[in-house]
User: Which sequence fits this backbone?
């Protein structure tokens, strides 16, 4: 397949766009984007639901290649990934738009933006890889909005980073069709997938998406080399009932096994759900208890101070292998090759040398 970067062109309005591969023409004259299950069917000039993929010249183009809403160096624990190069800094960025319509979006200024308002920064894949290396980042993360919708840009960045020994992380809702998903994850080393609730009704009413497609992505990832963790933002009264949580954890156990890390994070009122209160810490602890009882071995609370709920316990001997407070590593007892220092039991994840010492800092950066 021709690489999208070989197909750059500049429009009359000065915007750089790239051709994309996952679409097909329909008999009625429309062109269907096949990247995600939304399958937008577009007339000439129309944009898809995500706003960044557009029909232009009888094909689908990506309009945000090479552009970003800004760059930050974050702790990898903020993605959240607790079992992937712990303590290391990750160069993080997003673009604009999203293929979901979550009413509770915690990044709505980016995900709902029309690109011109927010995409002030620009960088080529090579510039980003060089910058990540210069700043000592072990990985680069596509985050803040879903990389599914800018997959051509993300894959080129991942390739440029791999050439320099830097890994690529996708933070995604996992709402993607099989063929583009397979292409995308060939370039990705680690992912955090948002499992927003264990209810089709919740997905359809509150995110305008479908649960079964997200579960398909989780099952798919289980069969790849991509390290992945799962996050559920607990929204009081909407997805935090015992029954739904039990069914979610049972599904994860059955389909992904006990070693997939699961994060329950706290919601704050935002976007179109400002009338819902923040998640009480007791809800996070209750959900964690349900998941542990279901048999999951690495269950964490997030967006709160809860060292107990953020500790990695060795499944072999029960020792505290990693104690965290928010994004800080308070203590770390895992060997350079990922084993418990007390008993030698392997701790699932990706480890390569000692833990990093980035701490909880969030450092906005400019890519020149
Ligand atoms: S990626 Fe965007 S344009 Fe393509 S189907 Fe999904 S929402 Fe529609």
Assistant:
């Amino acid at each position: 397949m021709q690489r999208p970067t070989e197909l750059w062109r500049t429009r009359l309005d000065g915007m750089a766009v790239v051709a994309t591969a996952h679409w097909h023409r329909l008999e009625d004259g429309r062109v269907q984007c096949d990247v995600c299950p939304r399958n937008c069917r577009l007339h000439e000039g129309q944009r898809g639901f995500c706003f960044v993929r557009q029909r232009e010249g009888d094909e689908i183009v990506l309009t945000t290649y090479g552009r970003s809403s800004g760059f930050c160096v974050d702790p990898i624990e903020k993605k959240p990934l607790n079992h992937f190069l712990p303590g290391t800094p990750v160069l993080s960025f997003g673009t604009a738009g999203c293929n979901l319509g979550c009413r509770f979006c915690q990044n709505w200024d980016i995900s709902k933006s029309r690109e011109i308002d927010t995409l002030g920064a620009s960088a080529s894949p090579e510039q980003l890889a060089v910058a990540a290396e210069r700043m000592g980042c072990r990985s680069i993360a596509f985050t803040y909005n879903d990389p599914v919708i800018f997959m051509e840009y993300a894959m080129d960045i991942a390739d440029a980073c791999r050439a320099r020994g830097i890994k690529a992380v996708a933070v995604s809702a996992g709402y993607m069709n099989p063929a583009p998903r397979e292409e995308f994850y060939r370039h990705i080393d680690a992912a955090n997938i948002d499992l927003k609730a264990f209810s089709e009704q919740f997905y359809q009413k509150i995110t305008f998406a479908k649960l079964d497609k997200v579960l398909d992505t989780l099952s798919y990832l289980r069969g790849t080399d991509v390290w992945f963790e799962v996050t559920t933002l607990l929204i009081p009264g909407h997805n935090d009932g015992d029954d739904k949580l039990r069914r979610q954890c049972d599904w994860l156990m059955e389909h992904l096994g006990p070693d997939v890390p699961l994060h329950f994070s706290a919601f704050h009122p935002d976007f179109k759900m400002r009338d819902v209160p923040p998640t009480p810490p007791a809800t996070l602890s209750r959900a964690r208890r349900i998941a542990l009882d279901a048999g999951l071995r690495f269950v964490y609370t997030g967006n709160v101070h809860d060292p107990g709920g953020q500790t990695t316990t060795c499944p072999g001997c029960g020792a505290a292998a990693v104690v965290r407070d928010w994004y800080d590593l308070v203590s770390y007892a895992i060997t350079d090759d990922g084993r418990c220092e007390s008993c030698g039991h392997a701790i699932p994840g990706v480890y390569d040398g000692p833990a990093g010492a980035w701490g909880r800092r969030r450092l906005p950066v400019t890519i020149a």
